């Protein structure tokens, strides 16, 4: 148990003793060392049923926070029974509370028949409140969990427990086109920061009762809602069990984005290659669920996590499946080529100009030698310096406001490149190589795969200046060994290439025609493999023989 929790618990025990002597509240909810990290489960009965006492206790627990709204009302037509409706300003819907809750409870003769009932909460829940999503809360733990999630709480004097009423509201971002996964063809809607909005966007695409959602609350302070989504009967049960295990073992004070979850459940931490995919496109998530993967949706994050994943998946775009297979294949090959250029482009230039001049035409050798005649630095220093400057410009463009950032990154690169050439610090050929390398890195659909190339680029430049092409080959072999050693929830990262799985090779770098991909990837789904009927290849209608003089 953390030291500050022990200190707070001891202070709370001292307060409880003082309150017992003064006849005050019997117990004070404090932070416990349970896995939920919320207020220790204390039934309302142990605190008594007095409404004022419970309101005082709630104010004390929340520090009398200004956003806690308490409506003290009288139930029944004769205003016979005190009650309170409690909500959080900004998380609730004031109009719904006023029209569908307060007006129904205050001065309503329907409640008179239930005032003396032992099951008054059940009666009000079933016969009086006309709002869906009403349930009982019988301890402080449940009360604060519901209240701080945007629900309203109804407490009645003399009745232990309360009702949680669905009045969730507040400001939410509208559904917009994803900013990080731009496509030429396909849906234009993207995820928001609302978990329920995100799950509904997936539900709209998969109208199947076998799409199951399991809820978790992670974060001992934030109590963040996390949803595990999968299609029962398609997803691998062993992978799902491992996912539940990893989610349940997370013990942290806060989850503010899905990136927290990603870093805490991935297979291998010491690698710059992502072993969990994330997307803000509902169609991408739906397609991955249909292949047997699972998705993790986090409240407050527009990025949904997907696993298991393979390396080649990061070179695939959503619109690959909305266009012809030959066009999609050409684009995928172009992306892989762009990744290789961004990975070893400067290293190849350094190796050629330093060790292997015989590999380039003699006219180009003379041209490069003439350019480098006045350059005071070796090629590797030029390359590293220009790459660092380019990365600084790229990072500055990301952090500045979008209109200004784009201008800074484009104009800055032009101005600095031209100034460096005129000052004799770098050669024009080096500016060209670095520019092509930077542009090639933008062709990779996944931002984090592109980052891996940007980082390993410096390693390959060091190997190139030390060993030439032999160093680049050694680096590529080491990189291939590292990639084949990675796993994503037990699935080989380089599959279906290494190990080679022929049945799964129809959707890798080369995308087969849609009508020929009748089976799901066996890497992710061990059952219900068939996803479409065979023999769906489009065929022209058969032409009937036309006799002389007849109309066709």
UniProtKB/TrEMBL annotation:
It is found in: Cell membrane; Membrane. Residues 1-10 have a biased composition (Basic residues). Residues 1-39, 533-552 are annotated as: Disordered. Its main location: membrane. One of its GO terms (cellular component) is plasma membrane. It is a multi-pass membrane protein. Residues 12-22 have a biased composition (Basic and acidic residues). Keywords: Membrane, Transmembrane, Transmembrane helix. Signal peptide: none annotated. The chain crosses the membrane at residues 294-315, 336-355, 405-423, 429-451, 458-483. One of its GO terms (biological process) is spore germination. Pfam families: GerA. Belongs to the GerABKA family. This is Spore germination protein. The lineage of its organism: Bacteria, Bacillati, Bacillota, Bacilli, Bacillales.
